[in-house]
Amino acid sequence: MVGRGSSVYANDVLGGEVVLVTGGGSGIGLATAWAAVAGGAAGVAIAGRKGHRLEAAAEVLVERGEAEGYDCRILPVVMDIRHLASVESGIATVIDVFGRIDVVVNNAGGQYVSPAEDISPKGWRAVVDTNLTGTWNVLVGVFAALDAAAPDKAALRGLRCVNVVADMWAGMPHMAHSGAARAGVVNLTHTLAVEWARYGIRINAVAPGIIVSSGLDSYPAPVRAALPSIAAACPTGRGGTESEVAAAIIFLASSGASYVNGAVLRVDGGSSLRKGIELSSFFPPHPAIPPYHSAPFLADKYGAFIQASRL
Ligand SMILES: CCCCCCC/C=C/C(=O)SCCNC(=O)CCNC(=O)[C@H](O)C(C)(C)COP(=O)(O)OP(=O)(O)OC[C@H]1O[C@@H](n2cnc3c(N)ncnc32)[C@H](O)[C@@H]1OP(=O)(O)O
Ligand SMILES: NC(=O)C1=CN([C@@H]2O[C@H](COP(=O)(O)OP(=O)(O)OC[C@H]3O[C@@H](n4cnc5c(N)ncnc54)[C@H](OP(=O)(O)O)[C@@H]3O)[C@@H](O)[C@H]2O)C=CC1
Fold this sequence. Notes:
By secondary structure, the chain is of the alpha/beta class. The chain has one domain: NAD(P)-binding Rossmann-like Domain (Rossmann fold, 3-Layer(aba) Sandwich), CATH 3.40.50. The chain is built from nine helices and nine strands. A seven-stranded parallel sheet has the order 3-2-1-4-5-6-9, sandwiched between helices. A two-stranded parallel ribbon has the order 7-8. It starts with 17 loop residues before the first strand and ends with a helix. The mean pLDDT is 91. Ligand LOHRUJSQ is lined by residues 110-112, 114, 120, 122-123, 126-127, 130, 166, 210, 215-216, 218, 223, 226, 230, 282. Its main location: other. Residues 17-172 form the Ketoreductase domain. It catalyses: (2E)-dodecenoyl-CoA + NADPH + H(+) = dodecanoyl-CoA + NADP(+); (2E)-octenoyl-CoA + NADPH + H(+) = octanoyl-CoA + NADP(+); (2E)-tetradecenoyl-CoA + NADPH + H(+) = tetradecanoyl-CoA + NADP(+); a (2E)-enoyl-CoA + NADPH + H(+) = a 2,3-saturated acyl-CoA + NADP(+).
């Protein structure tokens, strides 16, 4: 975590502001909530589905904030981003308590590992509803609530949104649902950066690579076992930390990024510059099917054609 004295930013980088972090009860979201406290925010709302997790996280933030001399109120908000009604009610609570929202961090998200052909319709919906529709729900929910809060869209002026996506530039093998959803969020970020600029809103995204976070604990053992090798294969030779992603989010939310709009900041140590095919090599081949591009397979299926084309 970033803290007073160790923060890479001034302690008033978000001075007096109100920050909403979805998925703020764990991992990158919790590190971002702390970075907001350490950046001088007056209020930080942390949202998620599990009340007990949010309460525990709020306690940690309050205790550490007090110990380091910050004056920030923490508000845990139970909210399921998949459901607009839940999002609307959560945002109403934030505005009731703090009277405003200055920064929204769409960090809540996740997926599970599966070959594309085994993703069920329900599983596809769960991941797309969480990552793409959930992000949309929060963005439109905050827009509508702030629009209703003051005439002439005055409460929207200065709003900053940061969407957390993933390293999906070369596809996300075995996470097709998430790759598609995250690409959708990137496009949404570009679209709203243009469309909502007229209201004084800035919207950007952060694309983490492999980040050593609590989120990775939920993956099955073989995937967790492969993670150190995947992280080590990154150009910087390691996975990232929750605080390193949080620092990028705070930068995009800060006035230091006042002319940054519609950007996607990769926080991945350069790993997205590698090819997706290398990532797929970490998965074992299907036991019954030879790889499509293997020489024997090509020879069986296309041997005659390949030979003919070499004439
Ligand atoms: C080589 C590996 C590279 C690793 C790169 C890592 C890059 C990214 C890392 C991260 O993002 S880490 C942090 C994120 N955290 C998580 O991903 C964990 C949270 N994950 C989830 O919450 C789920 O995956 C979810 C689907 C997004 C939501 O789960 P939830 O439990 O709320 O869904 P349900 O509505 O109960 O399930 C619906 C449906 O989805 C299918 N399904 C869900 N989980 C799995 C699973 N583990 N395996 C297979 N299928 C799954 C399933 O069809 C569910 O329906 P039912 O079968 O339960 O009826
Ligand atoms: N760690 C990594 O390597 C990478 C992470 N990311 C992304 O970064 C973000 C944070 O991940 P990380 O901190 O690692 O993982 P975590 O699993 O710790 O964080 C995910 C958070 O999202 C919340 N969440 C999930 N579904 C919902 C929902 N429907 N409504 C509200 N909140 C929800 C969870 O809280 P609760 O369960 O209480 O709802 C949890 O706090 C995610 O979007 C993740 O996919 C992207 C690339 C790499």
